[in-house]
């Protein structure tokens, strides 16, 4: 075997491995979608055909609840530690802060726009 044959064999093996990983990712994504649909189907808000407001309020509660607040606090602490160590990427810090403002200020922003439009 010469070097060209070895290179071609390695290239084919890498391509086959990438295809196998993509197939596995597609299967995993399909399974997660099926699991999410099954979960939503057994939720009382959806299964009992309750008004969509109840389900939407649950989603809003998930995004602005205690766990999300805790994760936001941890993200800000991580930014502070990185700043102290001199390893803070200001690009990431700005993205984190803007994300937190948009997530927790979303209701106030929407209320402001609605009141300004009427």
**Relative strand content:** under 5%
Over the alpha carbons, how many angstroms does the gyration radius reach? 24 Å
How many discrete domains? 2
User: What does the largest sheet look like?
Assistant: none
Number of strands: 0
Unreliable stretches = none
Put simply, the count of helices is: 5
Protein name: TrbC/VirB2 family protein
InterPro entries: TrbC/VirB2
Transmembrane segments: 59-85, 92-114
Keywords: Membrane, Transmembrane, Transmembrane helix
How does this structure look, described?
The chain crosses the membrane at residues 59-85, 92-114. Keywords: Membrane, Transmembrane, Transmembrane helix. It comes from Thauera mechernichensis. It is a single chain. The protein is mainly α. The chain has two domains: 1-42; 50-118. It contains five helices and no strands. It has helices at residues 3-41, 44-47, 52-64, 66-85, 90-117. Helix 4 (66-85) packs antiparallel against helix 5 (90-117). The mean pLDDT is 82.
Give the secondary structure arrangement, pairings included.
Layout: H1 3-41, H2 44-47, H3 52-64, H4 66-85, H5 90-117
Transmembrane segments: 59-85, 92-114
Pfam families: TrbC
Keywords: Membrane, Transmembrane, Transmembrane helix
